[in-house]
Amino acid sequence: MGSPPSPDAKGVGCPEDLFRSNNPGRGPYLFSEEYRRPAREVWEKGYRSVTVHDQRWARRDIKTIQLLANVFAAQSAADHGVDEIVFVNEGMAIEGSHNNLFMVFGDTVVSHPLSNQVLPGITREVVIELAERLGYEVQERPVPLAEMFDADEVFHSGTLSEVKPCCEVDGKAIGDGKVGPVTRAIFDAFLAETDSAD
Known about the structure:
Number of strands: 10
Shape: globular
Structural class: alpha/beta
Low-confidence stretches: 1-16
Order of helices and strands: HEHEEEEHEEHEEEH
Radius of gyration: 18 Å
């Protein structure tokens, strides 16, 4: 990626307690890498999350580089040895640190409605379209955290998350603690849709 930034470069490194194993020091810090979808056997095991109080600014629907609270939330997941977080705002399960959140109740797929509280993800739109095409009812409504724990399935959606099954939140199993059939059907449809575009 070239030579490291000069000591006079603008910008600051991460705080000492953030990403401790890879503190970049002073100056700009950028990286890129080729996207590699997790192996299906890894995906089939599902992922774990923790809840985090949502401390982001009030206009989360605007895509900006103001993501420090998201970075701290992602670090909270790493500190807890899990894969993802669920932001909670005024008792409602809102979204992940860098993705949208869906819950499944029977044959109904639910996501927080578009508002200033969530980023209107492109993948979210695709998931809603695929769920409807597969015959599932889709509801966009706030979901209290307690209701989320009663869901049959939970999953995240995003550009890099694609359709990411969440089988445990705060150490509590979601449904039977396994990837559910609705999440799997939507992911398979997502793969068929996106892989055919290559």
